[in-house]
Amino acid sequence: MFTFTCSLLEETKTQLRKFRLSTSRATTPQARIYLIDRKSLEIREADEEVYATLEDIADALPENTPRYVVLSHPVTLKSGRFSTPYVLLYYMPENSNNELRMLYAGAKELMRNTAEVGKVMEVQDEDDVIAIRDALVDA
């Protein structure tokens, strides 16, 4: 049995902290996608893009490889109150291989704690990502 220990570079930790602080009062959705480098076992940004819509995020995610998405999405709750939830989307497509599934599952809490998100939401496909807006309103 393989044992994987993933880590985050200080640079990635700093990026996550800055992103969290910069989005706390955002009026538009903002998201960044992270991956685990299979060679170094380090969690890092998939690209330098800051995504502004759930549709853009869904389009950017690969069809068969897991990812983490750190998302700040302003919503008006059913009570009428404005809120900006800061969540981690744990993207795990059904057709991911088992090694990657284990790797990402093992590092989920590390990513959650380092990103300091309020909630982890599991998504499996493009439709789930787009439906997050409704889940955030209902939360």
Care to describe what's here?
Keywords: Cytoplasm, Nucleus. One of its GO terms (cellular component) is nucleus. Helix content is 37%, strand content 24%. With 139 residues, the chain is an alpha/beta fold. It has one domain: 3-Layer(aba) Sandwich (Severin). It has a six-stranded mixed sheet, sandwiched between helices. Strands 5-6 form a two-stranded antiparallel ribbon. A hairpin with a 5-residue loop joins β5 and β6. α2 runs antiparallel to α4. The N and C termini lie far apart (38 Å). The mean pLDDT is 92.
Question: How would you summarize what this structure contains?
Answer:
It holds the Pfam family Cofilin_ADF. This protein has four helices and eight strands. The chain has helices at 10-23, 54-60, 98-115, 126-138; strands spanning 7-8, 30-36, 42-45, 67-72, 75-76, 82-83, 86-91, 119-123.
List the helices and strands and how they pair.
Elements: E1 7-8, H1 10-23, E2 30-36, E3 42-45, H2 54-60, E4 67-72, E5 75-76, E6 82-83, E7 86-91, H3 98-115, E8 119-123, H4 126-138
Parallel strand pairs: 1-3, 7-8
Antiparallel strand pairs: 2-3, 2-4, 4-7, 5-6
